[in-house]
Amino acid sequence: LAKTTQPISMDSYEGQEVNITCSHNNIATNDYITWYQQFPSQGPRFIIQGYKTKVTNEVASLFIPADRKSSTLSLPRVSLSDTAVYYCLVVMDTGRRALTFGSGTRLQVQP
Amino acid sequence: DADVTQTPRNRITKTGKRIMLECSQTKGHDRMYWYRQDPGLGLRLIYYSFDVKDINKGEISDGYSVSRQAQAKFSLSLESAIPNQTALYFCATSDFGTGSGDTQYFGPGTRLTVL
Q1: Are B44 and B1 in contact (CB under 8 A)?
Q2: Between chains, do B42 and A103 touch, taking CB under 8 Å as contact?
């Protein structure tokens, strides 16, 4: 099971780009990288998922280098409402295992 | 209407009481999960079910039991509640498909306090 490591917390200001990096050194060939966002007292919400290179959606971008041993979630022009905990997970494509959430990265956006 | 619902949303109980938390989903997903979250910490998996007849223990199943009554319903029971089971409990569902990972959809949570 691929273990992930990400910073405990980050601070930013409104309008800045925020990059949160996650390391997953023992990721397997069939694993995907997935990010979730959690606001206080709410369940986590899926943000983005990728296998390699770059994935972009309306919320974020996910950059995955060729060796796939790390990934970077990029949030463009953050606002106060982006203050949340962000979880990086490695998900097996073969499917016989549930997800494991670590402690995540607590992002605080200030005015 | 919400796709994943949890009842009750809040519950205060006493040590030794039996408590059941219920989860229902209208997403048609086969997979369902129960997590607990303690203040300032990440989610920890209690039990998960890949279909009605496939139930598995997670990392912290002691003191809990589950029942998958139907594809849409997954209940979590605390047979004899204790104060350190005070936490926020989340139910989630997913519809696994090869090539797309296993995106989970979470309910709003149940805040349980054991006195």
Answers
A1: no
A2: yes
